[in-house]
Amino acid sequence: MHESPTIQVPLPASAVDRAADAIARGVASGRYAPGQRLIEADLTRSLQVSRGSLREATRRLAAEGVLELEPHRGARVRQLSRGEVADLYRVRQALEALAGRLAAERIAAGADDAVMRRWLAEIDANPNGAGLSADIYMADNNRFHDDLVKVAANDVLAKQIASLRLPAVRLQFSLLLTQKHVAESIRQHRRIVLAVLAGDPGRAERAMRDHLRKSSRTVQELPDEAYAD
Amino acid sequence: MHESPTIQVPLPASAVDRAADAIARGVASGRYAPGQRLIEADLTRSLQVSRGSLREATRRLAAEGVLELEPHRGARVRQLSRGEVADLYRVRQALEALAGRLAAERIAAGADDAVMRRWLAEIDANPNGAGLSADIYMADNNRFHDDLVKVAANDVLAKQIASLRLPAVRLQFSLLLTQKHVAESIRQHRRIVLAVLAGDPGRAERAMRDHLRKSSRTVQELPDEAYAD
DNA sequence: CGGGCAAGATTGTCAGACAATAGATTAGAA
DNA sequence: TTCTAATCTATTGTCTGACAATCTTGCCCG
Fold first, then answer.
1. Among A124, B26, B41, B144, whose Cα sits 20 to 30 Å from the Cα of B211?
2. Shortest CA distance to B62 belongs to which of B50, B49, B78, B48?
3. Residue A40's closest CA among A68, A75, A64, A77?
4. Is the distance between the Cβ of B202 and the closest atom of strand C smaller than 7 Å?
């Protein structure tokens, strides 16, 4: 899979897109901490866009759940409470379970299974994720879920799932800091892949549901500092 | 249920909110047809807001799925293709099924069931929805689903469901134009309410899933004119 | 120490300007 | 005439500067 060579000059996406991307990346990377207030004046300076464009970007990010807006207090990085995270995982569970089901249905109907076969090979090549940094595994993990959603071939579903994944990246990240969780996560992915490749919707759905139920439980065990309030 | 008396003067919500509300209402009411292009200059005049505020409003509505934005072509009222509507209903099915399940779980756990009992009474008072205009029944229908989601008590879920309902109001509306569908819909609501009141999550989930599966089927039978492409 | 006020910081909103782009129109060539 | 290309027009994308409304902070006074 060859990418076109990385463009160096500020690629000519719209100002609003550039701003939104930069902020989203900043939130994901921790450059902007949860709860942190984002001052328009600072951002217009660092992102080199006008206040109007910046405001359009923050509105969009707020709608996507990355930021929160309070009247006359502007934007801050969204910080979830324990309860909200529990709610969020419950919904994600339902949606990703559906993704698993649909993916299996499509494979059973003869859709291309190369992507999933590749994942199986990749997992079996390193079933414990030995030697993977948290960064890398986080990226792999996201790619896995993305690929599965792609096989499910339901754009609405893809968008809904993405909007649930965004606000919780930070939490998910802290999960994957321990080798134990990484290995466990990979094991669950393997079960999911097998069910999907077998074209067994019920099994794929259950495997995915289990996976997220366990993730949720582990996230809930994180210490208070990870949460709001 | 008493509302505070309707405020006559342009209520002091922010300019962006006013604009977004007005556009959303216009889309729901058909004042702006699906696919119709929304010209900024026209809207700033009719809504009495600046271009900046208007653009923030359209960005938000686009993120909510009400409008579509195309670079250099601006905003247009989102129009769904048959396939997208099918996808959308599949996702809604999963989410509302979860809502049914959670609602039943909460009732079983002792949560207040007054709202649901009221619905049962209302349904049994007029089980065929005789004499209800499509407008009214549409509103009732929305209230029912909203109330159920409220009993489910999961804000994330509520927001996700809302974002799926918005783009399809128009289609749903055309469904409810025939007395047959209204009666059928009420019958299904009754099943759902009974399962929730019984505190039976599995049954509530199935009843809700059935309801949406049937709605989806009926929506798919609408003629081509209702869809894009 | 606590209340309250003034000053400063920040957001909400507007108006006006101009470049970039897409779509429509017209002119020209075959 | 019909197709193509240049031109015009409507519209969006973006910036700047301005000001009122609101929130925050720090200081003063009792």
1. B26
2. B78
3. A75
4. no
CB B74 within 8 A of CB B38: yes
Q: Do A91 and B156 lie within an 8 Å CB cutoff?
A: yes
**Token couple for B16:** 């962006």
CA distance A63 to A60: 5
Contact A77, A34 (CB under 8 A): yes
Q: Give the SS3 label for residue A223.
A: coil
Using a CB-CB cut-off of 8 Å, the residues of chain A touching B157 are 87, 90-91
> Mean pLDDT, to the nearest integer, of B51-75?
95
Tokens of A69: 């807006």
Task: Determine contact, residues B102/B155, Cβ cutoff 8 Å.
Answer: no
Residues 6+ positions from B132 with CB-CB distance below 8 Å: B126, B140, B182
Residues 6+ apart with CB under 8 A from A25: A31
pLDDT digits (tens, 9 = 90+) for A192-227: 999 999 999 999 999 999 999 999 998 898 887 777
| pLDDT number for residue A68 | 95
Q: What is the H or E stretch that residue B214 is in?
A: helix B201-220
pLDDT digits (tens, 9 = 90+) for B71-114: 999 999 999 989 999 999 999 999 999 999 999 999 999 999 99
Question: Percent of chain B having pLDDT more than 70?
Answer: 93
Contact map slice: A 132-161 vs B, CB within 8 A: 154-157, 160
